[in-house]
C-alpha cells in the first residue's frame, strides 16, 4: 500500500473498531443480569455506561483487534478482549478525575462521571468497570481455550495493577507534591506504567489470541512499548502547545500542576525528535514479526499516535 | 465429633487459615516486581499492605480453604484463591470507608487507609488490590488447569462486580438518601449482593477447585447463601445491640444513618429467629452434599457467624 492508501485504510479500520467496540460495550452493559449476578442496579449501570460509551478514539480496542488480525483472529474473541481493555481504560479515567486525584470537571467535552452523578457513584462505577473487564475476558464466550482466557486475564491484571497503570498513577500523583522534580529516567518509568502498560497489553493480547511465536510476541511487545512511549510524549507535546477546544480538556494544566512531562525535561524540540525516533522503533519492531505487509496498519497507527492533535 | 470438640477444631482451623492467609498475603505483597510488572511503587505497596495485612478473622479465606478441603484440595490452590478473595474484601472496605462513601475514620480499631495515608492513595490501593486478586487467581501457580483458573476468575468477578458486591454497595448508599425506606425484599437483595455474594463465592470456589458434582455445587451454593444471609443479619443485630469496643468500629451508626437493616424492618426478636433458621438451612444444605462428617466444620462456621460478637 502507498502512504495515502495506508493512512486511509487506517482511518477506516480505526472507525470500524470504534463502532464495533461501542456496540459491544452497549450490549455488555445491558440491564439484564448475567447468570450468577443478582441484579444490575439501574443508577450504577447508568454511570458505568456514561463512563464507557460514546467517547474516545478507541485506540486500545483498535490495537487489540488489529494485532489479533495479524494472526487471522477476528470476531468475538478480539472484540470482547478489546472491550475489557477499554473498560479498564475508562475506569482509570473515572478514578483519575475524582476530586482526590486530578479533580477534573470535564472529560471529552462532557462533565466527568463524579460531576454527572456523584463521587460515590463514580468510585463504584470505576470499581464495577474494572471488575467487569475480568468477567468479560474469563467468560467462555471470549475464547474456547481456557488457557488463552487465563493468559489474557493475567496479562491484563499485571498491566493494569500495582506494577503497571495503578502504580504509574500513584507515581504521577507523588511527583506533583515531591520536593524535587522526577528525573528523566523516573519520568519514563512512570509513563511506561501509567500509559504504556495498557497500550502494550493491547498488542500483547493480539499475540496471545493468535498464538504468536515467542519471537513474534517479543517483537509485538517492543512495538507496543515504543508506541506507548510515543503516545505519551505526543500527549506531553499536545499539553504544552495544544488548545483546549481540540483536546476536549484544559491544555497546559500538566505544566501548571508541576506534573512530570518530557517536554519539561527535554524541551519541545528534543521531545519531538524523541517521538519521531520512537515511531521508527515501533515500525522496525513490526518488521521483525516477519508478518510483512499485514503490519502496515499498525505502523500507520504508530504514526497516527505521534501526530494526533487530540 | 461432639459439639465441644467441633467448636474447638473450628477455632483451630479458623486460626490456621488466618495465619496461612497472612503469610501468603505478605509474600504476595513483597517489594520485588513480578515478571511483566515494571516496578512496585513503595508507598502504594505500603498502603495495599496496610489495607490487607494484620486484620480481621479471615472468614472468607477460611471458607475457601475448608470448602476445598471437602474435596481433598489443600495447599497453594486454595490458599492463593483465599488470598485473592480476601484482597477483594479488603479493597471493598477501603473504598467503602472513603469520605464520599461511608466516611469512616476507624476500621478494626485502626485508622482507615485514607486516614493513615491519603484519599488518592486509598482509592489507588483499593484499585490495586482488586486488580491483583485477578492476577493471583489467573496465575498458573494457583492451579495447573487453566479451566479451573478461568472459572474462578469468572465467578469471582461476577460475585464482586455490578451484579454482586459493588452493586450491593450502590443500593445500600442509595437507600440512605431515598425518600422511602427499602422494603424487606429490597433489603434482602441488597444484602445478598453487598455481603452475600463474596461469601457465596468462597464456598463455590471450593467446589470449583475440587471438581464438585453439579448437585454438590448446588448444595454448597445454598450453604453459602444461607451463611451469607446469617452473617448479615448477625451484623445488623450486633450494630443494634453491640458495643463499639468489641466491634472495633462505632455501633449504632447504621440505624443513625437510616441504613436499611433487618433489625429495623423485623425487630430484634424476629431478626434473631430468622438468623437461627438460616443456620439450620445452611446445615441442611451441607448434609445434601453427601460428604458426611467432613462438613461438620462448615456447619460450625455457620453457627459461629451467627453467634459472633464482633
TrEMBL record, chains A, B:
Gene3D superfamilies assigned to the protein according to its UniProt record, in alphabetical order: Farnesyl Diphosphate Synthase
Cofactor(s) the protein requires to work: Mg(2+)
Protein name: Probable farnesyl diphosphate synthase
CDD domains hit by this protein: Trans_IPPS_HT
Key words of the record: Isoprene biosynthesis, Magnesium, Metal-binding, Transferase
Annotated source species: Methylocystis hirsuta
InterPro entries documented for this protein: Isoprenoid_synthase_dom_sf, Polyprenyl_synt, Polyprenyl_synt_CS, Prenyl_diphosphate_synthase
A Pfam short name: polyprenyl_synt
